[in-house]
Amino acid sequence: MTPEEWTYLAVLLFSVPIGFVFKRGGYQVKQFGGAAVGLLLTLVTCNIHTLHSLVTVLGTWVILSLSPRSCHYLTLGWTFSYLLFFRTVTSFGLPAPTPFTNAVQLLLTLKMVSLANEVQEISRAKKQDVTSFTKGPALGLIPSVPGLGSILCYSYCYVGLMTGPFYRYRTYLDWLQQPDSQAIPSWRPLVARARLVPVYGLLFLGAAWLFPLEYVRSEAFAARALPFRLFYMVPVFFVFRMRFYVAWLCAECACIAAAFGAYPRAARARPGGGPTVHCPSAEEGAAPPEYDYETIKNIDPYGTDFCVRVRDGMRYWNMSVQWWLAQYIYKSAPFRSYVMRSGWTMLISAYWHGLHPGYYLSFLTIPLCLAAEGAMEAGLSGRRGAAPEPDRSWGAWVHWFLKMRAYDYMCMGFVLLELGATLQYWRSVYFCVHLGALALLVLGRALPRPAAPAAQGPHRE
Q1: What is the mean pLDDT of residues 57-73?
Q2: Which residue in 9, 8, 36 sits closest to 21, CA to CA?
Q3: Each residue of 177-219: pLDDT tens digit?
Q4: Is the bond into 288 cis (omega within 30 degrees of 0)?
Q5: What DSSP letter does each residue of 206-262 carry, written as one string?
Q6: Over pLDDT 70: what percentage of the chain?
Q7: Three-state SS for 80?
Q8: What angle do CA 401, 363, 97 make, to 5 degrees?
Q9: Are 34 and 150 in contact (CB under 8 A)?
């Protein structure tokens, strides 16, 4: 493990026990105490580079103050423009930010854009007097436009500061206003989420030792036979998954310890977004509601590893960020087709991750795989009684195998980062996924579609 990885792990492990302390606190303890801890962690790990996040917050506050009814796209433009400056600061003679500064900046960008959307919604609702005709506040709306102090506390709250999960200001506010957080269970859900973390950690350490990434860059690797070069991307992606499984599950445990993101099951909360339906207040004498932590769920290891389709693989990975991308990027994409909208979303996601060419090569391969997958599903539908996913027909297993190999292949660009290194590896395996996806796309579109069943009149006996 690198020194940065040890630091991330220390921050995550520190966040779990301190969460139980904040769970017992009231509104101000959570608000100011959580922000103080987060700011301290930021200062220790980012040093002077903390100014980047502060400038981002101040710029967002100015936009919210001047134009609350149209602040969403203005904030999106501001934060993403600052990301470009942040990634190119060395060109202006400024010191390069630390990896921890980058992590804080990434999550803060998502928070500021989401906050602007929430402010825009409440501003427009007040203008139209929508809430005055309802019995209670509209679902998900914040009660008022937050001031600078509240925005700073939300921005630097220690929960999810560097590793996620992403959460909305409404979720943060609900945590501060929990009426009886001690009644919300933490131990059992925490143990349930953490029980496999040691296993993932050991698998990460063992696989990273056996299959180092740097070996891919060596001349010895280029001299190996094609089957070995094809195989090597499998353990590389395995190491990549195990690393994030540990990080994100520990981050979820930190949330659970503080009862952060806990909602009654009846609210049908979604990762990142929070409740999707109003949850009625419990009547006096009624049984206490059952809670879940779906709002801060960021990873589904089983779903990631064993889902069948490429499109489902994205839904189970970094789930809170996927919600953000779907809500603020995909829905407003300047295209109509699913594949083109996905391509636009992947382009924005690559830019959010960084400027390394490997990000763009990897993310922009996904739309091709989605198009091939959709074409084959359309071409084969009705031809082979495809069994549902739980039945695991042979066709589903083949689909799963191809999906995993596609992600193995794309992961190489994500971890190698450089244009030359990524293309060199893909060239060494003959761009197999690109060519295979193109072949499946052509085949799927060439297959004749089965004729639609003729409409039948009413049956008479």
Answers
A1: 95
A2: 36
A3: 998 899 999 999 999 999 999 999 999 999 999 999 999 999 9
A4: no
A5: HHHHHS-GGGGGSHHHHTS-HHHHHHHHHHHHHHHHHHHHHHHHHHHHHHHHTTTT-
A6: 91
A7: helix
A8: 130
A9: no
CB 308 within 8 A of CB 400: yes
DSSP string, 325-375: HIIIIITT-S--SHHHHHHHHHHHHHHHH-S-HHHHHHHTTHHHHHHHHHH
Question: At 195, phi and psi to the nearest 5?
Answer: -65, -30
Kindly tell me if the per-residue pLDDT of 324 is higher than 60.
Answer: yes
**Which tokens sit at 376?**
């084959």
Split at pLDDT 50, 70, 90, the class of 282 is low
Judged by average pLDDT, the poorest of 171-180, 305-314, 356-365, 379-388 is 379-388
The 3-state DSSP class for residue 274 equals: strand
Contacts of 308 (CB under 8 A, 6+ apart): 389, 396, 399, 400, 403
pLDDT given at position 347: 97
DSSP string, 97-166: PPHHHHHHHHHHHHHHHHHHHHHHHHHHHHHTT-GGGSSSPPTT--SS---HHHHHHHHH-STTTTT---
Long-range contacts of 7-10 (CB under 8 A, 24+ apart): 7/45, 7/100, 8/100, 8/162, 8/163, 8/247, 9/246, 9/247, 9/250
The answer to whether residue 64 scores a pLDDT higher than 90 is: yes
Nearest CA to 5 out of 250, 301, 296 is that of 250
| 394-404 pLDDT per residue, tens | 888 999 999 99
Cα–Cα distance, 253 to 92 (Å, whole number): 40
Q: Which of 170, 173, 165 is nearest to 320 (CA)?
A: 165
Q: How far is CA 135 from CA 130, 138, 276, 281, in A?
A: 11, 9, 17, 13
How far apart CA 210 and CA 58 sit, in angstroms, is 46
Q: Residue 312 — φ and ψ, nearest 5°?
A: -75, -30
Between residues 127 and 151, the one the model is more confident about: 151
